Amino acid sequence: MTTSTQGSGDIGSPEPSMERRIVPVGAVVLTTFFALLYALRGSIALLDRGEDPRWAQQVGWSLAMWWTCLPLLPPLAALVRRFPVGRPRPWRNAGILLLGTTAAAWLRHVLMTPVVVAITGVPDVTASAAARTLTYFTVFLVMVALLHAVHYYRAERARELREALLTRGLAEARLAALRTQLQPHFVFNVLNAVTTLLHADPMAADRMLTRFAALLRMILHEETEEHALERELDLLARYVELMQLRFGDRIVVEWAVADAAWGARVPFLVLQPLVENAYEHGLAKRETGGRVRIGAARTGDALQLIVEDDGEGIDVEARAIIGLGNAETGSGIGLRNTRNRLSQLYGARASMVLERTPGGGTRALVTLPFIDGPHESEGPRA
């Protein structure tokens, strides 16, 4: 059975085309900057000699000269990916990159100079070959630095992704474990309720067992960790029918669900342990019966779920000390499970409070972030 967490945000993979986008743009910007700088310097030199600056010609020639550096970018990128400056061998890799950058500068001059001459018709000045090679080396060194920035950015993004996936996997494993704990506890408690009727009212026990089988099929086919409150209340209404077969008319159930709350998303079976607690620990021992009130309402950005009974009430302080349950009898597993699932799904944005009511009963108040979702089924509307 699969689970899904909410609020963690969507985790995307690092952009595989990041390097293909950033590096070419940065390289074009860098070489264009150098081209315009060289064109400006050449035109100013002509002005100083009293000649026509020939701005367009200078810019065209400079762009042809510097843009022909770009074909050497892919080999440099491959070299950076293979030998980035960093652990475990920073000095060796730095030396390899320096040699590669020097080779790229020399190849640029040897291979691309005839291309530039053919394009522009401006003959190359042999005396400036060494100076130009050194300039190309400087440009390629800046490109290598840019490639390193992208390389380490992608490595950091990949590390963050691995950590996020690990965290999400751990959270999903914990939720799966909690859900695995919840279902047997639920089954055991309902079957225990059936056995109490087996001798006193066999027909009611038979009907209860049949309806429980139908409910259990629905629960086992629920594959998500969250669903619409409407779906939750539909399941809960079927559970209440089981309890009413056991307790009869002496326990009255009231539903008070605001219209704005029906589509909100809630954790799977978040209310069932609270209603079970109201029946078993609040009203089961009272011969006069009592009342259970189930409510839901939206309050700003929060959803509040309430299960309240007018039964005997609980020792809140004692239960808080032992984690909402009795370690010897095993009671309170459902409540602890609910609290732990809320913490896993929503962190500090959710809470569950168990308290006495002024009349002596018990109120369970669950507060969740309000997350709207689709309506899924018709339930017991108030």
Automatic annotation (TrEMBL):
Residues 270-372 form the Histidine kinase domain. This is Histidine kinase. Keywords: Kinase, Membrane, Transferase, Transmembrane, Transmembrane helix. One of its GO terms (cellular component) is membrane. Gene3D superfamilies: Histidine kinase-like ATPase, C-terminal domain (3.30.565.10). One of its GO terms (molecular function) is phosphorelay sensor kinase activity. Pfam families: HATPase_c, His_kinase. The chain crosses the membrane at residues 22-44, 64-84, 96-122, 134-153.
